[in-house]
Amino acid sequence: MKSHSLLLAATALSAFVAAPAQADDRQPSSAEQLAELREQMAALMARVDQLESELEQAEAQAQAASATAAEANAAAAAASETALAARETAEKAPSIAFKGSPEIKGSGGWSFKPRGRLQYDTGFVNAPSSTGADDGWGTNVRRARLGVQGDMPGGFGYKFEVDVANSDVAVTDALISYESGDVEISVGQFNNFQSLEELTSSLHTSFIERAAFTDAFGFIRRVGVGATYSKGDVLVQAGLFSDNMDELSNKEWSADGRVVFMPKLGNAQLHLGGSIHYRELEDGATTRYRQRPLVAFTDERFINTDRFSADSEFMYGLEGALVSGPFHAAVEGHWNKVSRPGMLADPTFFGGYAEVGYFLTKGDTRGYKGGTFDRTKPANPVGNGGIGSIQLNARYDRLDLSDAGIIGGIQDGYYLSLVWKPSDYTMLLANYGKLDYSDAVFPTVAGDTDYSVDVFGMRAQIDF
Questions:
Q1: For residues 420 and 307, what is the distance between their CA atoms, to the nearest angstrom?
Q2: Residue 112 lies in a domain
Q3: What angle do CA 293, 365, 398 make, to 5 degrees?
């Protein structure tokens, strides 16, 4: 900055030296010029000092601004690193969602979800008094299940559930699964691949009990290995099984296969399927087919083949369903051919049903997913200003256990049900059934085995 002052002073001195040579008689005296020049130089130096001060201030401000910018950049970089670290921590931390119960998901594919259901049934069975059947009012805890399910890294999954209804502990599902692409492999105890009605969860059925043939023909969970292929509108299932955990003899085995075609027709869901089942019984085995009158809180069976010797079972079934807005329809037929030893005739028993249903509440429809009926979710549940969903259903159910000299009887059921779901996870159901019997196992005093039985049942249900 001092070099600027010296340059200005030299310029002013040059002007002072040159001034006398240019003077004439009309110009001021040298003394006056010198005084004026000194004043100009003083003013100029003052201006130089001012500019130097302003320049120094500007440089100081620039340095301060540069330092501030550097600090801001450092702070921004630190904040970015902190945000990145927080994001990584958040991604690793487990997340909790609520789907009826808390579902915890962690990093790497881990998840854990408790599950359960509680179903209370009550009602009455009214049979002709002279049959001596134990009818009247009844009640029971139909299901009281607790379990867990979830996923593990690598495409693995698990599910374990026990039922403690009426203080009897029984394992229902107990399986490990592996999923890769469109294929899922399951090992453990689970439902065999038979029937739309059987594979639909008891939480989502339209009547208090499933169709009569599913229980009469022994559709239960068994220990084995199964594979499911699902892509687009096609579902293929197959498996090899032994027995239920309660009866593991390792002397019997069975094989199941099921194919489903489930296209969408506009807004309607179509379901067409078929299944086959073969079961090899142990040497010298006997079997029996029988069924209750609709409800499970009675132990009376009005149709019953009683025990007879058998080598194997071969079953095949057809199934169809349609869901369109508030309307649904379903139909199934299932045939069970039993091979008997020696020259004994082989009977073929039949079971099947046809049903229709309609929601009386606007916007509701029956759920469907993956080849079975699924959860109905009310469009206007209680608690959100609505009344939930109300559904009316009608069904014809037939079970024929008489063939090839075996007289087990025939049951024709005509059922009505009213289902109210206040919310996704609660349900109240009322069911009436009129059952017409031929060759019933309980004759009247007059020896009549053809008569009718009236049944009324109610259920309160909650699940999570």
A1: 40
A2: no
A3: 25
* Distance (Å) of CA 392 to CA 101, 255, 412, 421: 29, 37, 20, 12
pLDDT above 90: residue 80 = no
Query: What separation in angstroms does the CA of 420 have from each of 5, 427, 430, 464?
Result: 99, 6, 9, 17
Residue 111 in any domain: the answer is: no
CA atoms within a 13 Å half-sphere pointing along the CA-CB vector of 147: 23
Residues 195 and 341 in one domain: yes
Q: Which domain holds residue 371?
A: 118-463
Q: How far apart are CA 364 and CA 402, in angstroms?
A: 41
Number of domains in the chain: 2
Same-domain status, 286 and 216? yes
- Token duo for residue 401: 């256990």
Task: pLDDT band for 233, please (50, 70, 90 cuts).
Answer: very high
Collect all residues with Cβ–Cβ distance below 8 Å to 173 and sequence separation of at least 6: 147, 159, 160, 161, 188, 189, 190, 221
Do residue 71 and residue 167 come from a single domain?
no
Say how many CA atoms lie within 13 Å of 214 toward its Cβ: 23
- Say if CB 160 and CB 173 are below 8 A apart: yes
Buried b (16+ CB within 10 A) or exposed e, 158-194: bbbbebebeeeeebbbbbebeeeeeebbbebbbbbbb
Backbone φ and ψ of 193, nearest 5°: -90, 75
Output b/e per residue, 348-371; b: 16+ Cβ within 10 A: ebbbbbbbbbbbebeebbbbbeeb
Token duo for residue 444: 């009247």
Is residue 99 a part of any domain in this protein?
no
- Please write the tens of the pLDDT for every residue from 264-322: 999 999 999 999 999 999 999 999 999 999 999 999 999 999 999 999 999 999 999 99
- Strand segments, DSSP code E, in 208-326 are 221-231, 234-241, 253-261, 264-265, 268-280, 286-287, 290-291, 303-304, 308-309, 312-324
> Does residue 97 fall inside a structural domain?
no
Residue 455: give its domain's CATH number. Answer: 2.40.160.10
Tokens describing residue 54: 């302003």
| 356-410 pLDDT per residue, tens | 999 999 999 999 999 999 999 999 999 899 999 999 999 999 999 999 999 999 9
Task: Give the pLDDT confidence of 4-48 residue by residue, as tens digits.
Answer: 444 444 444 454 444 444 444 455 677 888 888 888 888 888 877
Q: Note whether 400 and 410 are within 8 A (CB).
A: yes
CB within 8 A of 324, min separation 6: which ones? Answer: 267, 268, 269
In contact, 420 and 407? CB cutoff 8 Å: no
> In what helix (H) or strand (E) does residue 325 lie, and over which residues does it extend?
none
pLDDT of residue 91: 64
